[in-house]
Every structure is written in structure tokens, then in C-alpha cells.
Amino acid sequence: MAKVELKQPIVQAIAEDIQGAQSAVLVDYRGLTVAEDTELRKQLREAGVIYKVCKNTMMRRAFEGTEFAELDSYLEGPSAIAISKDDATAPARILCKFAKDAKALELKAGVVEGTVYDSAALNELAKIPSRDELLSKFLGSIQSPITNFARVIKQIAEKDGEVVEAAAEEAAEVTAE
Description:
Layout: H1 3-18, E1 23-28, H2 34-46, E2 50-54, H3 56-63, E3 79-84, H4 90-101, E4 106-112, E5 115-118, H5 119-125, H6 131-159, H7 165-176
Antiparallel strand pairs: 1-3, 1-4, 2-3, 4-5
Helix pairs in contact: 1-3, 6-7
């Protein structure tokens, strides 16, 4: 077999991983200990992020014709790639958090939802909470006024000595919803 035929499955695997991905982040992993690398892989796997160490030429070929092709200029030295298909900020968030403790890990660049970011921009992007956190905060802010209104109505009813059980039950139902 020719060398090209041996490398084609690797390029194809990378291309399949980035197909439909919301984000991909390149890192320089040199200097990480085995324990640090194992912990990093565990955190990424738990978040549903694909993490691979690949040759730069293989990644260049896989990136051809995709939105990730702009990462070619950052493919120098040893590179690993973290890919997420679900949560666009997960790779940047996890890698930036991990890089604070493991100084050897360096973020190079990334593509998040079609936009290329350098390492400084990725650090800022990592500060954005996950989609689930944002949704829970949003729902909490929507529910808060209704809950407060129900409490005020209940206090007014108790103050006047006219505790109406039906009104209290309705307030409880509104709060539960």
C-alpha cells in the first residue's frame, strides 16, 4: 500500500468528526504530564467533546473546503483538536479552565459557529456559561415575578385575617408551574 492510502482513513476520520461540528479548538499539549492529559481527556469526554492528537498535515487535508480551513495558519508544532457537535462553547470553556492549572497547555485558536477566534478571544468566549445554565437562569428570571406576586397576595390575605384557602392554593399552583 502507498503512504497516501494508509493516511486516507485518518483524514476521513477527522473529516467525519468535524462534519456538523459547532466548534473546534486547537491546542498545544506539549509539557502535559500523563496524569494531566488523562484528566483533561476525562473532562472533555464527560462534556461530549471529541479530543484527538493528529498530525497537522492530516488536519489540513481534513479541513479543506470546510469552515475550519481557516485554522491552517495555526497548525504549527504539535497540535490536538477538541471538537463539539452539541455545545459550541464547551471545548473552549473546559480547555481554558484546565489551562489555568496546567500551564503547559496552550490554546492556539478555534472556530466557534463559523467564526475563527485566537487564544485571547477563546479565553473571553470561555466565560460564557453553557446553554443549559443560561436557560435555567432565564427560566428563573421569568418565574421570579410570579412567585413574588403570589407571596405578596398571601401576606395581604393573612394580614387582614382573611386567609382564603382557595387563593393560597391558586398561588401555590402558579408557583409550581
